[in-house]
Amino acid sequence: MTKRFKDLTAVNDVSLDIHRGEFIALLGPNGAGKTTLVEMIEGLKKPDSGSIRILGRGWAKDEAFLRTRLAGVLQEPLFINKLRVDETVNLFGSFYKLPRRRSEEVLELVELLGKRKALVEELSGGQRQRLALAISVLNQPEVLILDEPTTGLDPQVRRGTWDILRRLNQETKSTVILTTHYMEEAEYLCDRICIMHQGRILTQGTLAHLLQVHEPGEIVEYRVRDEAACGDLTSHDNVIHYQYDQASSKARILVHNGTDFLFRLSRFVQDRKVDIDQIVVRKKTLDDLFLSIAGRGFHE
Predict the structure, then answer these.
(1) Which of 55, 104, 107, 211 is 20 to 30 A off residue 205, Cα-Cα?
(2) Which of 268, 264, 192, 199 minimizes the C-alpha distance to 229?
(3) CB atoms within 10 A of CB 33
(4) How far is CA 94 from the centre of its chain?
(5) What are the E-state strand segments in the chain?
(6) What pTM was estimated for this model as a whole?
(7) Which positions fall inside the ABC transporter domain (predicted)?
């Protein structure tokens, strides 16, 4: 699929297969093309070239069929503030001719049953997002699209929303497509990750696969005032890549085996009397992955 807006190519010749029951992340910085891509999947925008098939159907001929089997949650859902929570869910349930008990089921699923008599305007941002999730799964859609559903939420509320999203995927068996620019969100929730940048998919796969394919290894970070004093450490076979930031006096080394390097570093410090502190050994993250394949940090 390709989609252009005047001189901007928002989605640039993207091909993507999404499997039934999968929880997949479209990950990328702002402007990567994630929202435009999902809006084409949702039938809200038409691609300038290419085609989309969902459950074996296309939007041109089977819109009525697809509308009953696909649901989405936008970044900023809008509701009628003076309605109660249960009235809001019942209203949407009536569009599908669902019994009232279904409203209570979905409110319990998103942990809003205790707020069912509250006015929508009394809900917090996180609670409004959970209300949007409740509405989206009313008719048990086969495909659920979540467009940056936790943007603007504080970390504690965001983590609680992640647990609800994971439970929705497990209990409803829906295929879930998540767009996000939170690395840790994609890492926590998704079976497969597609990293988008400037309208293209740079790479895709499970987190373990991506980290193995793109510069496998572990990262050692530490502070040292005299970079030259540690020069011998970086010439070892265990070292894949070395980087030193003069401003922060911070060394960042990608190694094959973090434990072996840490043992060698410890002996080196003792022998040379080098002043090193704040040593961290960690696995590579999605942020490291994006840096290695895009040549810049994710939030850059």
Answers:
(1) 55
(2) 268
(3) 23
(4) 32
(5) 3-5, 8-11, 23-27, 70-73, 143-147, 175-180, 192-197, 200-205, 218-224, 239-245, 250-255, 276-283
(6) 0.79
(7) 1-223
